[in-house]
Amino acid sequence: MARTRLYRSGVLALEGFPVGDVSRYLAEPNAVVWLDLCQPEPADFAAVGEELGLHELALEDAVHAGQRPKLDSYRSHQFLSAYAVSVAPDDVSLVTREIAVLITANALITVRKDAGLPIDEVVARWDRAPATSAPGVGLLLYGLLDYLVDGHFAAVQHFDDRIEELDELLFREERRQIQEVQQRSYQLRKSLVRLRRVVLPMREVVNSLMRPDLGVVPEPLMPYYRDVYDHVLRVTEWTESLRDVLTSLVETNLSVQANRMNMIMKKVTSWAAIIAVPTAITGFYGQNLPYPGFGQRWGFLVSTLVIVALSVLLYVAFRRKDWL
User: Which sequence ranges are marked TM in the entry (predicted)?
Assistant: First the structure.
């Protein structure tokens, strides 16, 4: 599956032409070509790389999945690896889609490792791109990076909202909600770890792209790339703070559970003390010894009143000490 676009002086001139015509259009002045490949066969992609003069290591990294976000520079081009992210339907899991980008002076080649990455949304951003005095590969790359970083931002915002919901459930007494806090906290923690692995290296990627010696970002586009870099920093800091908040939430949840257990043990102990008083009295007179009033009605009434009075006295004392 391949998609192609040809821009002349920043204006879309042709779309959907054969991949074999890419090198012919690249020979034109003021022409920029975009080539998108989705899960290409290694042999076919190697042929494209040979035609465009791409380094074999860049071709290898572009085809094989599992690359970390990075920017590698070669003599005539750069290789960029990044991830698009989204939140799964369960509201707590993170879905990542890997994309590799090969950047030359007048061509942008995107290689999607997964068909789930919505490249149409990136194309829509290109069509809405701001009018600048520097149309070219840098502008297309900006639209792609802006889309990826906005996805990171949306994911961290979503996880922030979910953590706030857990915080509200933390001090409720229902057993089902206690279990929900524990399960969702663990799942959110795993998702934030995965998100951190995606967003943290992007700081170095975007910062390296803005280096003047690379020549990828012309001066008119620098403010746009600085805006993307600012968003990357905000997402990174937000992710780090959420990990700290979630760690505190998990520790607080454990403390709340321990306090609840202490309260339960305190109540059980208090009730056991109350029950022990009548048990001791009746047990003592259960021996083969006659107690005062033995065989008399008044003796039974007195022993019953003593049991009730002592039990009530202990109950009131425990209530005052907040043991019940």
Answer: 268-286, 298-318
Instruction: Say whether both 193 and 89 belong to one domain.
Output: yes
Q: What is the DSSP string of 130-150?
A: PP-S--SHHHHHHHHHHHHHH
Provide the token pair at 151.
């996805």
Relative to beta strand 107-112, strand 31-38 is parallel
Domain count, the chain: 2
- Regarding whether 238 and 91 lie in a shared domain, the answer is yes
Question: What CA–CA distance (Å, rounded) separates 35 from 55?
Answer: 17
C-alpha closest to that of 137 among 203, 42, 225: 225
Name which residue leads in pLDDT, 253 or 289. 253
* Pair of tokens at residue 19: 């991949």
Mean predicted confidence (pLDDT) in 138-143: 92
Percent of the chain with pLDDT over 90: 31
Domain ranges, residue 128: 2-257
pTM, full prediction? 0.78
Q: Are residues 31 and 174 in the same domain?
A: yes
| Helix or strand (DSSP H, E) at 103 | strand 94-103
Question: Residue 301 gets which letter from DSSP?
Answer: H
- For residue 271, the tally of other CB atoms under 10 A from its CB is 15
> What 3-state class would DSSP assign to 82?
strand
